[in-house]
Amino acid sequence: MKIINSSISDTDLCTQLKSHVYDILGCCQDVHRELGPWLNEYIYQEALKMSLEEKQVPFVKEYYFQVTYHGHPLSHKHYMDFLCKGNVAVECKAISSIGVEQRQQLWNYMRLTNTPIGLLYNFAPVKDQCERYYYDVSAKTISLF
Fold first, then answer.
1. I need a labelling partner for 14 at 20 to 30 A (CA). Which of 22, 115, 122, 136 fits?
2. Phi/psi at 69 (nearest 5 deg)?
3. Which residue positions in the chain have pLDDT lower than 70?
4. What is the C-alpha separation between 27 and 11, in angstroms, rounded?
5. Domain tally for the chain?
6. pLDDT of amino acid 1
7. What pTM was estimated for this model as a whole?
């Protein structure tokens, strides 16, 4: 998998991706606006679950997926915070700032589940942080959008 630090150059694709996640990001922003910064990550996740339900955004909380090796399932259980609309991985954080470890976690979830869109949302800072990624499954590259 190759990580591309630049944004997607295809403006039509970028516009489509932004439109697809607009309501999900709106729910995240509503949660941050109402609850404010520096709470526990699980509080934000529970509030986001409620917000997604209210806005009727399809999702699975704590989406379970199994990793395989040589065609055999591994016993360790993996969960991403949310899988929205069947193709958007949402990873919630409540930390001082997003770093390499948090990005790598989301990218691995996207890669292992072939999920093309990933949102890394940090609720903790006074000004919330969000990073949006696109995983091109055929090229095995991840780009910002």
1. 122
2. -135, 125
3. 1-8
4. 25
5. 1
6. 60
7. 0.92
